[in-house]
Amino acid sequence: MTVSDVRIDPDAERAVERTPRPAALLGLIARYPLGAAGAFVVLVMIFAAVFAEAIAPYDPEDNAFEYMFTPPGAQFWLGTDDFGRDILSRIIHGARTALFVGFVAAVIGATGGLVLGVASAYFGGWFDLIIQRVMDVFMAFPLIILALAVVAVLGPGIDKVIIAITIPFIPQCARVVRSSALAIREMPYVDAARACGFSHARIILRHMVPNVMAPYLIMITAFVGQAILLEAVLAFLGLGVQEPTAAWGLMLKSGAEEYAESAPWIPIFPGLAISLAVFGFNLFGDALRDALDPKLRAQ
Amino acid sequence: MRFLKSTLVVSFALGLAAAWAGGAAAGETPVRGGILKFVVGSKIPSYDAHMESTFGMIHPIRPFYSLLIRVNPENPSSPTDFVCDLCEGDVPAATNNGLTYTFKIRKDVKFHDGTPLTAHDIKATFDKIIFPPEGVPSTRKAFFSSLDSTTVPDDYTLVFNMKYASGAFLPAVAAPYNFVYSKKDLDENGYAWHQKNINGTGAFTFVEHKPGAYVEGKRYENYHHEGKPYLDGFRAISAPKMAVRLQAIRGNRAAIEFRGFPPKARDDLVKALGDKIVVQESDWNCALQFLPNHRRKPFDDVRVRRALTLAVDRRAGSKYLSKIAIVKTMGGVVFPGHPLAATEEELSKIAGYWPSIEKSRAEAKRLLKEAGAEGLEFVLLNRGVDQPYRVVGTWLIDQFKKVGLKVTQNVLPSPAFYDAVRKKHDFDVTVYFNCQSIVNPLADVSAYISDDIAGNNYAGYQDRTMDKLFDQMNRASDPAEQRRIMRLYEKRALDEEALQFITLWWYKINPHRSYVKGWKIAPSHYLNQHLDNVWLDPDLM
């Protein structure tokens, strides 16, 4: 069969065109119910982060000692903390911190990994060998240890936290992307592009990168969840963002040690927010992987 | 008359905690035996108290050593009640118009290695502290600026010869850091030997130190205070996290922690353990400060600095922060309640202590506008320790926000924090502390004199008027005159020149197992830690 022999069934083409969008969405939800639940959590988080000022009932940083340790109720749905600050408002604003750190670290980390992974696979040889051994060194350290080491050197602060979380992500993504790119490098169309005399940059950007986008996107969603968790861990250890900024890990730290018994709502709600966000991103990432991976989709 | 009245009030206030604490033990006969287990929230940098200033060293190491004089273990809340430890009889009064102190030394004291103690050992110790050779660290040598020399007329007599009479001298001698070392050890092993070795005359002999785990001591049978110590030994368990220390007491893995817990922790313990817990509380000779960096603009402008202190509502802070942090009392530069401390009326005239916070904040805004610093943004440096630093730092930021300042917080672990404040001077405004052991205001307020004279002023200024007032105050023999000068000194430091500020004074809360008897709370976590009068009540264990 030659290329010119391939024919598209006109009915099938029309059928795709005619599928209404809500129905397609419902089909996706039916097919990936857990992924849909994850996507819902992610959307709620994004909504809370974007419209925090509008939907938070109180200023998240204003001390109001006359309301300190108020349990959950009509006035303060999730109660107040030791400074009398509304926990719901702090959780809503904390979503902004979590998502900001999560998305920035995930996108930079995954993109760095994408560049290195594809370049490493494409050039091969000594370049590949050196890049991969460097990646091996970074991957020898557990994620949290590496992040702790980086933030210990750079110091606390939101920018330093993002750097600390980004660095461990780069080798993880580079390794996954490289394995996909190695297979693509051997495809005839890449050989054809080389034969046409295209530059390395053009071959990488136009012919290889688009074909590794699936693992790249999946890595990003997985990284966002991990980054949120790491940010919370660093804040809990006192190395992340600092008071009075609303951040879930910081809220958990303040509440867990001193008020776990006498005012349990202080650590419980930020703890739940962290768990739910990470769970949501993981479910969403898994569903995305299933949807984008042809082998898993066929199963 | 007012001075006398305030003295009485102070004595009553200071004695209240001790009376409460001592109440349980009064009339009871101490029982010998048992191992006291206590938790310590900080590490031991070295064993040499002459160079260290942390309770992490004092709590586990102090029981191995003695002092020439010490605060009265039965009345540790008093700032003037000292008793002999290695000297005989009562603490001697100054003679020769306050220029000579003559101590008679006990003849029945031996170091743990068997060497008899003489006046030469004590002279060698104080010479190391006050006149250390070049390169030998001595943290508190400035406390002895009134001393001229020490002499030993015979083996059991020690004389301190003063340059001028000073009420700050005896409290400085009684400081718990003045461990008495053996002259033989100093001569034979050098001045660094005590950093890693222990040989004292204290109630307990050193058994073992497992770094990061515990320090153990056992009873010294030849201890010079007859019948003491009551304990067979002690184990100081290292537990940096507060939650661990709290759970150790709750689970009876440890009986006491000597530094202090926040109010909520006390309430949780009392609620959980009822009468198995006794709580001792006291004002604490620690002022939690905030220091503007005078080297950095716009904090070189007195108007901006005054605005900072005017923004802070200390009265409300005292009311609410005392529920969540180990701070409580509003005060000036002198330990609250001390005869030299400002009265409420006197405080009310100082910027930042005015009765009306609205008026105070309006003035702060006016000053900021006048200085062109409206909406000023800066970073508040803070120490990575929850109590009381993080809590008070977060509160301070909210206070500054109320006059339009935009402040973020940079919290650093202790070593990096000290480096930034003490060496690099890399901060806009920092939270800091002035913690002392013996309540000795004439020495304690030295942190406010010029930074080229004071070893512990990190705000970065030179103010010769402050230096002059400090010197006049220390040379004044009349308490009324001392008090008058102290008011001028305080007003200039906190208000007129707005050099550095106090948020609130710390408040010490020590919940402990009720079977621990004999230990009485002091206004410092450095004091009364020799443990020779502590005993365990077997009926309550």
Topology of this structure?
The complex is a heterodimer of chains A (299) and B (541).
Chain A: H1 10-18, H2 21-31, H3 33-50, H4 52-55, H5 87-123, H6 125-139, H7 143-154, H8 158-185, H9 188-195, H10 200-208, H11 213-236, H12 248-259, H13 265-292, H14 294-298
Helix pairs in contact in A: 2-3, 3-5, 3-13, 5-6, 5-8, 5-11, 5-13, 6-8, 7-8, 8-11, 9-10, 11-12, 11-13, 12-13
Chain B: H1 2-23, E1 35-40, H2 55-61, E2 69-71, E3 82-84, E4 100-104, H3 119-130, E5 147-154, E6 157-162, H4 169-173, H5 183-189, E7 204-210, E8 214-219, E9 233-238, H6 242-250, E10 256-257, H7 263-273, E11 277-292, H8 302-310, H9 314-321, E12 327-329, H10 344-347, H11 357-370, E13 377-383, H12 386-401, E14 406-412, H13 414-423, E15 429-435, H14 441-444, H15 464-475, H16 479-496, E16 501-513, E17 516-517, E18 535-536
Parallel strand pairs in B: 1-9, 1-10, 13-14, 13-15
Antiparallel strand pairs in B: 2-3, 4-6, 5-6, 7-8, 8-9, 11-15, 11-16, 12-16, 17-18
Helix pairs in contact in B: 8-11, 15-16
Please give a quick description of this structure.
Chain A is an all-alpha fold and 299 residues long. In chain A, 74% of the residues lie in helices and 0% in strands. In chain B, the strands form 5 sheets. Chain B has a 6-stranded mixed beta sheet with strand order 12-16-11-15-13-14, sandwiched between helices. In chain B, strands 7-8-9-1-10 form a 5-stranded mixed beta sheet, with helices on both faces. In chain B, strands 4-6-5 form a 3-stranded antiparallel beta sheet, covered by helices on one side.
